[in-house]
Amino acid sequence: MGILTFLMGAAAIVPAVCFILLVFAFKAISGKGKRAVLAAADASVMIFFFSVYIKIMTLWNPLPSIYLFWSAAAWTGVFVLFYWKTRWKRPRAAFKKMWRLSFMAYFAASSVLFLYGAFLSIAKEFS
């Protein structure tokens, strides 16, 4: 088994497991379900970011700098949009909203890439 196959397998499962474990840990600490989910989402953004990065590198093998550049450019634009075009004039509030939106985006991208990779793998087996 190659290192790339191992990384793809880990990238498929580890982020979701980490998120669930973080929810349980934060729920045990705080005792509040909604606060635990939000704290787990905040803590697992980078896990999902690197999961999406590994999945993209495994599926299409583009230049790593392309993903990093466009991801940074997109989130900078979202931050600027939240900060200047809305009534949130505090950078911390804008950053918090952008961070939570990035969790939703990377979680969705990770799930879609997982399903796409599974479909490609199954299709390759039957062809």
TrEMBL record:
InterPro entries according to UniProt: DUF3397
Coiled coil listed as a keyword: no
Membrane-spanning segments: 6-29, 36-54, 66-84, 105-123
Key words, A-Z: Membrane, Transmembrane, Transmembrane helix
Coiled coil: none
Presence of the UniProt keyword Thylakoid in the record: no
Official protein name in the record: DUF3397 family protein
Species this chain originates from: Metabacillus mangrovi
